[in-house]
Amino acid sequence: MFTRNEDLSEQQEGISIETEEEGNSNFFPNNSQGESIFSSINSEEDLLMLISHYDLQAKQDLEAYRYVSALENFKQGLEVKRKLARDMTCEIIQSHFQIGMIFSILGRFRDATFHHEECLKLKIQVFGNDSLDVAASYDELGEISERRAAFKVALNNYRIALKIRVAKSSPFVAISYLNIGYIYYLRGKYDVAQSEYQKSLESFRLSDGEDMMNHPKVAQLFHNMGLLDNKLANFKEAFENLEKACKIRMNLYGEKNKEIAESYDGFAAIYFFQGNYQEARIFDEKALDMRLELFTEDHPDVAKSYSSIAMIINKEAKYDKAIELVQKSLAIQSKYFDSDHPDIAMNLNLMGMILERKGKYEQALEYNLQGLKMRQKLFGDVHPDVAKSYNNIGNVQLLQKKYKEAFENYKKSQDITLKIYGEQHPTTALAYGNIGLVYQQQGRYTDALANLEKSKQIQVDFFGEEFPDLSLTLISIGYIFVRTIDYDQASENYMKAFSITKKKYGEQHPQIAIIFDHLGYLNTMKKEYAEALKNYQKSIKINMLNFGLDHPQISSGFYNLGVIMNYFNDTHGAERYLRKAMQVRIKLLGKNSNVVFQNNLGLQYLEKGRAQHDLFEINII
User: Fold this and answer.
1) 8 Å CB contact between 182 and 146
2) Are 66 and 16 in contact (CB under 8 A)?
3) Can you state the angle between helices 594-607 and 571-589, rounded to 10 degrees?
4) Which helix (H) or strand (E) covers residue 542, if one does?
5) What confidence tens digit (pLDDT) does each residue in 523-579 have?
6) Are 459 and 470 spatial neighbours (Cβ–Cβ below 8 Å)?
7) Is position 444 within any domain?
8) Is the pLDDT of residue 25 over 80?
9) What is the CATH number of the domain that holds 487?
10) Are residues 460 and 512 in the same domain?
11) Using CA atoms, how far apart are residues 368 and 366, in angstroms rounded to an integer?
12) 507: burial class by Cβ within 10 Å (0-12, 13-18, 19+)?
C-alpha cells in the first residue's frame, strides 16, 4: 500500500524557504561563505565574535520561524566552538541541545536523537549521572521516542528523569508526571494517565502557585488533560482545559506557533466527536494553514492535519478528496516514521473506512487488517485503537453479509471498549449498535432492538437528539419495526433520522439515500407501491450522484426497482433493472457471490410472475 523511505538521514532540508540575510557585516560570513572565511579566522577573539554572530543569527531565525536557517547557524556555531583551544564543553552542550531541538521540530527524529544523546553524554561527564541537567536530557530523548511511537523507550527515559528529580526534591517532578501521564494516555491507560496528570497539577501548584499559569509546561498539561477528557466524553471539562492551554500559549507565543496549531487540533477533536463537523473543519483548517506557514508541506504535523480533514470530508461523502488527503499524509509519514507508527495505522484505518463507503470491500478489509496488525504490535490487545480496527473490520464483513465474522469482530471491539470506558460512553454505544445490526440481519429482532435501544439512549444522553450518528441508529430501529409489522413506529423513526441527516448533511448525502431505501421498503410492506417506487428512485438518484454506477448501493437500487416493477405488472421494466443490477454485481463481486445468487433468485421469481417482500435489499449502514 505504501513503502517507507529508509534513507531518513538523507531527507532534504527544504522545510522552510529563507532568502533574507539579516545583520551581516563585512567581517561576519553568511551561511554560503562561512566555510571559506571560517578557515581564515584563527584568533580566539575573532572566533568568540563569530560564535556570538552565529548565535544571534540563529535566535533571529527562530523568532521568525526560519528553522532551516537557524539550524545551519547553530551548526556553524558548534564547529567554531570545537575549534577553540579553551574548554567549551558547556557551550557545546548548548549547541547540541539547540540543534537537536530544531531537528525534532522539523520531524528529523534520528538526527535529533543523535544530538540529544551527545548532549546527554557531555552532561554526565561534566555534572554526573544525577544532575537535573541530565534529567532534562532524558526528557528530550523521551519526547523524541514518544513521537516515534517507541513508547517503552520513552517511558524508561521519563522515569529516569523522574527518579533524578525526586532524589533532588526538584519542582520539575511536575514535568516528569506530565510526560509519564501522556505515554499512558497514548497507550490507552486512561486511569493511570489521569492519576499522573493530577500529580503534575498538584506539583505545579505547590512549586509555582499563581505563576504556574505562565508556564509552557502547564499549558501542555491542560492541553493533555483536555484530550483525555475528550476521550472520556467529558466535553465541558475538555473545552475548559483546552481553553486554558490555548490562553497560556497565546500569552507566551502569540497567535502563530506550533503549540497554537496543536490547540486547534484539540478543539477540532472535540467538535468531531460531538458530530459538529463544520466547526471541526474550521479548526483543522486553521491548524493546517499555520503549519504550512511554519513548516511548508513536507512535515509530520502537516500530515496530521491532512488526516484530520480527510476524516471530516469522509463524513461529508467527498470520498475521492478524502483519499487524496490520506495518500498525501501517508507519503509524508513514510519519510519520517518507522513503518509501525500510530499515525500510519490511523491512516490505514481511515483509508479502509473511505474504501468501505465507496463499496471497495476487499480493499477496505485489507487496509483495516493491516492497521489492526500494526496497532496490536504497538499497543497490545487492549487499546481503544485496536477496538476501532475490530469495529471497522466488522463493518466491512457486515456489508459482505459475513454475519458470523462480523459479530466476532464487533464482540472483540465491545469487550475492549467496555473494559476501557464502561457502559456509559459513546464508543460503547457504537459497539451496542453494531451488534444490534448483526442480530437484525440474522432475524433476531428482540435482541437487535435491545442493543439498538441501548445505543440510542447513550447517544442521546451524551449528544442530544441532533447527533448525526443517532440517525443511523434510528434507521436500524425503524427497520426492526417494519419487520415486526409496527409501521407507525417505523415511519416515526425514519422521519426523525431524515430530519437529523438533512439538517447535518443536506439532501444529497448517501445517508439520505439509505433512508429513502428504507421508506421504499416500508411503502412496499404497506402495499403503497407508487410511493415505494418514488422513494427507490430518489435513493438511486442520490447514490449515482455520489458513487457513479460501480457501487453496491447502485446495484441494490436497480434490484429494488426491478422487484417493485413486478408489482405494476411491468415485466419488461422489472427484467431490465434486475439485469442492470446483475451486471454491476458481477463487475464488483464476481459471478459466484451471494448477492449475485440473490439477483438470480429475483429473476426466477419474476419469470414465475410474482414478487416477494423478502427479496428487497435494504442498505444497512
Assistant:
1) yes
2) yes
3) 170
4) helix 529-547
5) 999 999 999 999 999 999 999 998 888 888 888 899 889 888 888 888 888 888 888
6) yes
7) yes
8) no
9) 1.25.40.10
10) no
11) 6
12) exposed
How far apart CA 396 and CA 503 sit, in angstroms, is 27
HSE of 337, CA atoms in CB hemisphere, 13 A:
25
| CB-CB contact of 268 with 308 (8 Å) | yes
Q: What SS3 class is residue 129?
A: coil
Is 331 a member of any domain? no
Domain membership flag for residue 358: no
**3-state SS, one letter per residue, for 427-494:** HHHHHHHHHHHHHHHCCCHHHHHHHHHHHHHHHHHHHCCCCHHHHHHHHHHHHHHHHCCCHHHHHHHH
Q: Is 23 helix (H, G, I), strand (E, B) or coil?
A: coil
Distance separating alpha carbons of residues 303 and 560, to the nearest angstrom: 42
The C-alpha atoms of residue 219 and residue 301 are separated, in whole angstroms, by 19
- Environment class of 422 (CB within 10 Å of its CB; exposed 0-12, middle 13-18, buried 19+): exposed
Three cell numbers at 382? 487492549
- State the DSSP code for 130: T
Residue-wise pLDDT tens digits, 229-253: 999 999 999 999 999 999 999 999 9
Number of domains within the chain = 2
Give the position of cell 495518500. Answer: 327
Helices then strands, each counted (H, E), the chain? 28, 0
How far from each other are the two terminal CA atoms of the chain, in whole angstroms? 26
Q: What is the pLDDT of residue 177?
A: 97
- For residue 196, the tally of other CB atoms under 10 A from its CB is 23
| DSSP three-state, residue 25 | coil
Task: Give me the domain span that covers residue 455.
Answer: 422-493
- Give the residue-averaged pLDDT of 147-176: 94
CA neighbor of 199 nearest in space, from 227, 219, 180, 226: 180
3-state secondary structure 47-116: HHHHHHHHHHHHHHHHHCCCHHHHHHHHHHHHHHHHHCCCCCHHHHHHHHHHHHHHHHHCCCHHHHHHHH
Rounded to whole angstroms, the Cα distance separating 156 from 476 reads 48
- Grid cell for residue 519: 421508506
C-alpha separations of 41 from 70, 73, 391 in Å: 22, 17, 66
Burial class of residue 587 (count of CB atoms within 10 Å of its CB; 0-12, 13-18, 19+): exposed
